[in-house]
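Changelog entry: the Polysaccharide deacetylase record was regenerated in this release. Current contents:
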Amino acid sequence: MSGSSIWEPLREELARWREAGKVARFWWRDDDAIEPTAALDRLLGLSSAHETPVTVAVIPANTGPALSQRLSGTSGVSVAVHGWSHENYASPQEKKQELGGHRLGEAVLGELYEGFLTLQRLHPARFIPMLVPPWNRIDDSLVPKLPALGFECMSTFGRATAGAAIPLLNTHIDIMGRRADGKGPRVGRPHDEVVSELVGELQDRFEGRNEPVGLLTHHLAHDETAWKFTEAFLSEANNHQAILWKPAAELLKDQMSTT
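Regenerated structure tokens:
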């Protein structure tokens, strides 16, 4: 399938939205930021070139003033709390978790509070009170206690659960995946697969599901396949009247005003 024809299903779906006078809301989250890197420069360059806001999930324990200084000259970038140290406490037989039930809840919550204060101090103009659990996993018992720490929302992956203890602003499209043999680091997924998922998410919204579509990227892990998809999708999206990119803070305000 040629590069152009890969995008035809998305273009056809967006044409349906435009004809119906509907606009799909999108937002963009990128995980695992720590410090200035060439990959971060590339990410911020795409955000700027396409005038697309991005929420950078920063690992508090491993970051410092260098990242704050790098972001100081950018626009459209917000900072969320990506756990504390992104350390896995699960057993080898379990899926990776930092915020699971493997430690005392008080210890986990204490680290999250420290992470909240750290990023609020380092990024006062960009900080949003959002928790992004590492690996998109958190023990259910911790969630109701997040508002007492100052968190106003949480972002994981997949359809947001109705009646959650804290507002959810989730991601739904992960451009990274495992290799066919399951070995080695994650790689950029085939573009046609991701486009198919995008169309499916849009079809859900067209039928009335009131949830923004969240794009998930990981700048430090991207190969060229992932970078090329990100750039191509931003180009497609910014050229269409049926897509509106919104900052996470605005989406949170919209959500709180309707609850």
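The chain has a mean pLDDT of 93.
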